[in-house]
Design a protein that fits this description.
By secondary structure, the protein is mostly helical. It contains 29 helices and 14 strands. It has a 3-stranded antiparallel sheet. A 3-stranded antiparallel sheet has the order 12-14-13. Helix 17 packs antiparallel against helix 18, helix 21 runs antiparallel to helix 22 (about 560-570) and helix 28 (about 705-720) packs across helix 29. It is elongated and about 125 Å long. The protein starts with 5 loop residues before the first helix and ends with a helix.
Length: about 750
């Protein structure tokens, strides 16, 4: 331990001079010294330092009355010409006065850029007291922290440039800066200097061969501006060495990139965003992106906090690839994709933080994250496994079992919003449900429902063709079920014609098959169809009648129940119910040849009428054989149903003047919107993103003003589900999946 206190030095010097004077004779006589050859040579005294010197880390030094542990300070005499200037502010001169009796621990009178030689004795006492306490008092005056920090800057920026022992201190100094920032980082000024100094140290440590210590900075704690040097170094070394960027580095890169601005879900749901981003990053890029090294190198300009030091430029032979254009685009697209996927979930927990682990919240998570909601999803998974198992065909289940799983918004009432949430959850688990309100079906209640494995990408909303197909399928199912038996031939014909004739997508075809299963498992009725059928022309009604008549005859057997049902449908179609028999005769005829025997078609009247209908000839296997040429001919005739069914939902304008008059006015309406705005809402919902120019073109087509249309559909969505349908994001418009599912159901 070194003793360098001012008072102690003064007293020792005084008593030394006093003893020398007391021992000297009044009249001294010079005597030649006696040379002794057997005496051991004495070591020359250690010269006292003439300038402040660095106290190494871990060394305790006595300064006046304080024992200061930990080292990492400069102690020694400061030249008098320096006093009162900005030079050597960090150096502790033991010769300067210290007020030990009343140390000032709150920094009264301290200047913004303090120097030890310029502050008051009371301030020196407060500073030394803080040092002696281990530099950890949480309420310490920040000026004292800066005084100590000045010394660290000098050691790194001045001494380390030419002194290998100073470079050996870099790691310890780096750890000390991190510790100080944890304690005093609440001060904005100190936090800024400490952060930049850390980056400077990271560069220097990398230059010293400690690159293995570079890890991706944590986006939750790292400062975004300026770009963290640790990020620059890590990415630069990966690019330099031709290595892929791991998912952990890519996440840090995306969230700290100076040109990427993540939306709210990334901050509100950081853990969900992290998992989703890394999962989709690996799916897109495998082991990771590979970056082409740039000519620009990683460098840092550091302006020290100490007034006695000038700005320093620190550089490294590592490419700076943070802003590499191709990688930036890839990361920005992925960030947008992930935040959009989490948007509905983010909004829910933003309004109701306590439901973050509920089934309703899990329903809004992307499929990749459902494994993290294990307990909440357990009852749903158990029901799916119990009912579907390995079945490939749709399976009928009690609708009440599904409803019981869902925590309804209004206790005891399973509403449309709840039905949307349940359907979305099942879809994320790879399961479809019928009825589905998003596709125009009713809300689940009592009676049957149908679950089926999703093998194809499902439509977000019902297209005109699909809505038309379900309407005609409803009619056909009523006819087929009239004899209490639906043959495989009837079933195949019902869906086969609609799938091919209406050009449905693979997902729509799969759902249509499930919808038919539901229709056949239910007590299918004709209620609710009159409105849709009322818009048909006479020719179109005739085509529908022909199709339904062929459905009744396709299995070679026409029951009285089927005839009765057809008569009812003919009445709905405003056709003569007596014409059923003539159409049945034509549909059931195999080829234009004379009948071999009569086949009786039962009528609802007391006197049945007989018609000669050829019996189909049985094949050798005993199976019913139909004339495929005739069937194909009938399908060709009713192929006009393709256009017809679209016309069920699209009204033909009386005056074919401007395009706006051709707006679809019988599109399934959206609550609170007129026909044009309903069409606008459904059209925009077909795509997850829109540009302003595309939306303006759509509005021109529909005769609407863009801003007014957006206000109208968003107001309707807010009334329905407290969410806007169309969100403006930097002149790009995004569709809110949650609002779309609930509003357009």
């Amino acid at each position: 331990m070194l003793g360098l206190g001012q008072e102690e030095c003064g007293l020792v010097g005084f008593w030394d001079r006093f003893r020398r004077r007391a021992a000297a004779p009044a009249h001294a006589v010079a005597v030649a010294p006696v040379q002794r050859f057997d005496a051991r040579p004495t070591a020359p005294p250690t010269p006292k330092p003439q300038v402040p010197t660095w106290v190494p880390p871990g060394v305790t030094i006595q300064i006046g009355r304080y024992a200061v542990p930990g080292g990492m300070i400069y102690v020694g005499p400061v030249p008098r010409h320096v006093w009162g200037t900005d030079e050597m502010p960090e150096s502790i001169d033991p010769a300067l006065k210290v007020n030990y009796a009343n140390p000032d621990r709150v920094g009264h009178g301290m200047s913004y850029w303090p120097a030890y030689h310029a502050i008051s004795p009371a301030n020196r006492g407060g500073y030394l007291s803080w040092l002696a306490g281990g530099r950890k008092a949480p309420d310490a005056y920040i000026g004292y922290v800066f005084l100590f920090f000045y010394g660290l800057e000098r050691r790194v920026l001045i001494d380390a440039s030419s002194d290998s022992s100073a470079r050996a201190d870099l790691r310890r100094i780096y750890a000390e800066v991190l510790r100080l920032q944890r304690l005093y980082g609440g001060n904005r000024s100190f936090n800024g200097y400490a952060t930049k100094f850390q980056q400077c140290l990271e560069l220097m440590l990398t230059a010293e061969g400690e690159s293995s210590s570079v890890t991706p900075p944590d986006p939750a704690t790292a400062v975004r501006y300026p770009t963290p040097v640790a990020l620059q170094l890590g990415l630069g070394m990966l690019a330099r060495d031709g290595q892929p960027v791991p998912a952990e580095w890519a996440l840090s890169w995306a969230l700290l990139h100076p040109e990427i601005y993540p939306r709210t879900p990334a901050a509100r749901c950081p853990e969900e965003f992290r998992k989703l981003f890394q999962e989709r990053y690996r799916r897109r890029h495998g082991v990771g992106l590979r970056i082409r090294p740039s000519k620009q190198l990683v460098s840092l300009s550091y302006r020290p906090a100490s007034g006695g030091l000038g700005t320093t430029q620190v550089g490294l032979d590592v490419p700076d690839v943070v802003a590499e254009p191709a990688a930036t685009r890839e990361l920005a697209d992925l960030v947008d994709e992930c935040t959009a996927a989490l948007d509905a979930y983010s909004r829910l927990i933003g309004k109701q933080p306590d439901v973050a682990n509920s089934l309703a919240a899990a329903a809004l998570l992307p499929a990749e994250l459902l494994s993290t909601s294990g307990e909440a999803l357990r009852p749903v998974r158990e029901l799916i496994d119990r009912t579907l198992g390995d079945a490939e065909a749709p399976v009928v289940v009690p609708a009440a079992d599904l409803v019981a799983l869902w925590p309804a918004r209004t206790p005891g009432k399973f509403g449309k919003v709840d039905a949307v949430g349940l359907a979305q959850l099942l879809e994320r688990l790879g399961v479809g449900v019928e009825p589905d309100v998003r596709m125009g079906g009713p809300v689940l209640s009592s009676g049957p429902a149908v679950l089926f494995r999703l093998g194809q990408e499902q439509p977000a909303v019902a297209s005109h063709e699909y809505a038309a197909a379900t309407t005609l399928l409803h009619l056909a199912a009523v006819v087929s079920a009239a004899d209490d038996e639906v043959s495989e031939a009837e079933r195949a014909h019902l869906t086969g014609h609609l799938e091919t004739g209406l050009h449905l997508s693979a997902g729509e075809r799969q759902r249509l098959s499930a919808h038919l299963t539901l229709l056949l498992a239910s007590e299918t009725k004709l209620t609710g169809l009159k409105k849709r059928l009322s818009v048909l022309t006479a020719a179109q009604r005739g085509h529908v009648a022909d199709f339904l008549t062929m459905v009744a005859a396709i299995d070679g057997h026409i029951s009285p129940g089927e005839v009765k049902t057809l008569r009812k449908i003919y009445t709905l179609l405003e056709l003569d119910p007596e014409s059923v028999y003539g159409r049945l005769h034509v549909s059931a005829a195999a080829k234009p040849a004379p009948a071999t025997e009569p086949v009786t078609i039962g009528t609802p009247g007391p006197k049945p009428t007989g018609y000669l209908i050829p019996q189909p000839q049985p094949a050798a296997t005993g199976q019913l054989v139909l004339d495929r040429e005739l069937v194909e001919a009938r399908l060709a005739e009713t192929a006009a149903v393709s256009a017809l069914l679209a016309d069920i939902f699209v009204d033909e304008a009386d005056d074919p003047a401007p395009p706006p008059a051709a707006v679809a006015i019988d599109v399934p309406s959206v609550r609170g919107l007129d026909a044009a705005h309903s069409t606008f809402a459904r059209r925009v919902a077909d795509s997850p993103r829109w540009t302003r120019s595309d939306l303006e073109a759509l509005c021109d087509e529909l005769g609407l003003m863009l801003e007014g249309a957006l206000d109208s559909v968003n107001e309707a969505a807010l009334d329905a589900v407290d969410e806007p349908l169309v969100e403006d994001d930097h002149d790009e418009f995004r569709i809110n999946d949650y609002a779309r599912g609930a509003l357009l159901a």
